[in-house]
Amino acid sequence: MQSVWLLSSRGRPREAQATIDACTETGMTSQGVLYVDGSDDYHRIRLPGNWRVHYEPEWRGLQGSLQWCYETFPNATQYGWLADDTRPRTEGWDKRLEQAAGDWNLAYAKDLWMSEHPISLDALQSGRDLSSGLCWGGELVRTVGWWALPGVVQAGIDTAWTELIRPLSLHRYVDDVVVEHLHYKAKKRPKDSVDEGAHINPDITVRNRWVWSSQYRNTLRRLTRFVPSGDPVTAALRQSLVDELWGTGMMPAARLQRIQEGALDIDIEQWESEVQRVHADPEPPRMGPPSNTERGRAVLQ
After folding, report:
1. pTM of the prediction?
2. Residue 36 in 3-state DSSP?
3. Which of 22, 98, 106, 244 has a CB 3.0–4.6 Å from the CB of 78, allowing a cystine?
4. Residue 210 · residue 298 · CB < 8 Å
5. Counting Cβ atoms within 10 Å, is residue 197 exposed (0-12), middle (13-18) or buried (19+)?
């Protein structure tokens, strides 16, 4: 199984067609899947050979579309998502984002909206926010156990992921690839009924409760165990950042950052194993990628 790119769309057949056309014009070769509501308007969509369509009679929201795709393509090398108001502008954008995502990262493109303002650009560069043309490494998604946070409709999916990728430095902002976001807040299109956000506050509540739960901490711990790192300093820095999220009082991330930058001369071997031992999960760590049972446990926890 290779990569798959999902385009979720409801009530916007013209926007969906324009997005697909932009993908074709920029040389997209990866598998594309259009997930739409069952309205007749979408039956007139023109699809190139590398695209297929899934009609969903009962709309399940963005979360439902992402989870459907994950369940339908469980072994994808990368999972990409496009909103129907985004337009790829860079030739070969799909393969470049997939390469940046690899197995374990979340890559995202320059969107000509958030990327154009210093504060939001800083959030993109630091992994505190996401833009457009989102592409997840397949092993990252399978280890977490879901592509979209269970219990939400749409809001909170992106910031749930930033809470996972930012502490482990798994974010990859690819600023030389443009996937333009024609958001109404950017004044690039009028606001429509699809933009209405009755789901936002309930979704954010679900997301916030998850961040403060043991499910979040256990997911982060599982990632620290399985995400490859050939650099012991990077591995220890990741672990320390995770530790600080629930106040274990171990070596501060700021100090580890200074070690990584060469500002402190410390023998890593003296404390690296201790950091790993104190914060290990109760069950013995295993080598290699997680089993299907472990991956599925993230959904059940």
Report:
1. 0.78
2. strand
3. 98
4. no
5. exposed
